[in-house]
Structure prediction request, 106 residues.
Amino acid sequence: MRQGFLEHSPHALAHTLREFLAGLEPLEALTPRLARLAVPALLIAGACDAASLATSRALAAALPHAELAVLEGAGHVVNLAAPAAFDAALLGFLERRVAGGAPCPV
Prediction:
C-alpha cells in the first residue's frame, strides 16, 4: 500500500483525498437511506483500526441485513493485515447467502 501512495506526487494525492473526503456525506445523513436497503451486507474491520471501527459499527447498525466481522490484530487495511481471516469472513458470508436461498431477503 505504501508503494501505491509513493507512485503519486504528494500534492496530487493530498488533493485527491481532500476532494474525495470533502464530498462524502456524514453517516448520520445516510442512515435513513441505508435503513431501506434490503440486501445482505458484510462489513469487515480491523480491531486495531481506531479511525474506522466506530464507523463500521454504526454502518452495521444502520443496515438492516448487515453483518460485522471485526478481525483481531488487524488495522485499517484489514485484507492485507489478516488475509486468511479476511478470506474466511468473506467466504463464510457468501456461503451463508448461498445456503440461505435467495441472495436478498424479501
About this structure: The first helix runs from residue 2 to 6.
